[in-house]
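Entry 14. Structure prediction run on the chain below.
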Amino acid sequence: MISTPDRQNTIALIEQAKAAGARRAQACAEVGIDERTCRRWRAMDGTPEDRRPTAPRPVPRNQLSEQERQAVLDICNSKPFEVVPRLADQAGLFSALFLAVWGGRVRTATGGGSLSGDG
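Output returned:
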């Protein structure tokens, strides 16, 4: 994602190179963008702001509730020899935890600040 000021600066550099006699395709290749991207940015009447960061995003249907998330964190932060007995005691929670695959476990744990994110 390229910020608006960077887009404007890139277009200005390309236009400056073109005014100095360079071809647009060569100037675009030099700054690392495709010539079609340059054409699209210029056709947008300037360089409009990127709306992707502020776009509304729906909540995933399979997102853990706060209560389920906290239960996963509690179990992840317990000692390894306590995990299986705790899961066996909480049969209803076991099915929810079983569905929380390793990637989900890591995302949950890193969101809680208990893992570094490297697995």
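The radius of gyration is 25 Å.
Filed with the rest of this week's runs.
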